[in-house]
Design a protein that fits this description.
Layout (H helix, E strand, L loop, with lengths): L2 E5 L2 E4 L4 E8 L4 E10 L6 E6 L6 E2 L7 E6 L4 E6 L8 E10 L4 E5 L3 E6 L1
Parallel strand pairs: 2-11
Antiparallel strand pairs: 1-3, 3-8, 4-5, 4-9, 5-6, 7-8, 9-10, 9-11
């Protein structure tokens, strides 16, 4: 059974920084694409950052230049460094990953970590 567990969320003032972590555990053969999504109350879920297996990165226009996605393959962990945070970044942040186990290749989601940015 594969699990993704996010951590690092919290309350921060505008202009501050947070680093989110997402640790994958279980009988993992390989982790391919990874991504961070967010959903604010009353809004649609938004793709924030994406890193395919080749290590390239893609960001939503709203976070370009402020957020950085990275991964530590040895630790099966994905990070989201968030700088210059704005109140509009307030949301529940989820990590996702395409993971191969002995049984299948599937897309997994974490339970989410709350980020609240005060003005």
């Amino acid at each position: 059974q594969v699990q993704l567990v996010e951590s690092g969320g919290g309350l921060v003032q505008a202009g501050g920084s947070l680093t989110l972590s997402c640790a994958a555990s279980g009988s993992i053969f390989s982790i391919y694409d990874v991504a961070w999504h967010r959903q604010a109350p009353g809004k649609q879920r938004e793709l924030v950052a994406h890193m395919p297996s080749d290590g390239t990165t893609n960001y939503a226009d709203s976070v370009k230049g402020r957020f950085t996605i990275s991964r530590d393959n040895a630790k099966n962990t994905v990070y989201l460094q968030m700088n210059s945070l704005k109140p509009e970044d307030t949301a529940l942040y989820y990590c996702t990953a395409n993971i191969r186990t002995a049984q299948r290749l599937a897309n997994y989601w974490g339970q989410g970590t709350q980020v609240t940015v005060s003005s």
